[in-house]
Amino acid sequence: MDIGISKKDREKIAEGLSHLLADSFTLYLKTHNFHWNVKGPMFNTLHVMFMDQYTELWNALDLIAERIRALGVAAPGTYREFAKLTVIQESEGVPTATEMIKQLVAGQEAVTKTARGIFPLVDKAGDEPTADLLTQRMQIHEKNAWMLRSLLED
């Protein structure tokens, strides 16, 4: 494979992207769970917002995994692998709507930090396609975190 990025750098970038994939999948699952189980006065607003967010996350999983594959590395794809790679904690039971929002803000911020953490290596390697993917992911997660966070303000 000769795409202008060394094998070592491709493997390191793919490792970072594997963490991003695991965080994204875990946040997808948590958001979908909250979509199913939210209740209270903001039910409709949250139900729809969570659906929009989990749908976007679901579509992003393919983009991230395909970038890992384009770098010549196998993408993780099992719960066991994702559990080892993610920083996002699973939720116990069914939290209140406010607690769901707080957990999803933390999840969106965690995915943003994971994406941002890959940038130094991506920049050093001159991997513009991955930089573009990371930039797009961070914009989406920062916006989602802001929208969720705004629901917690009086």
Automatic annotation (TrEMBL):
Xref: Pfam families: Ferritin
One MF annotation (Gene Ontology) recorded for this entry: ferric iron binding
Cited InterPro entries: DPS_DNA-bd, DPS_DNA-bd_CS, Ferritin-like, Ferritin-like_SF, Ferritin_DPS_dom
Coiled coil region boundaries: none
Residue ranges occupied by any Ferritin/DPS domain in the UniProt entry: 15-154
Family to which this protein belongs: Belongs to the Dps family.
PANTHER family assigned: DNA PROTECTION DURING STARVATION PROTEIN, GENERAL STRESS PROTEIN 20U
Stated name of the protein: DNA starvation/stationary phase protection protein
The species this protein was found in: Dechloromonas denitrificans
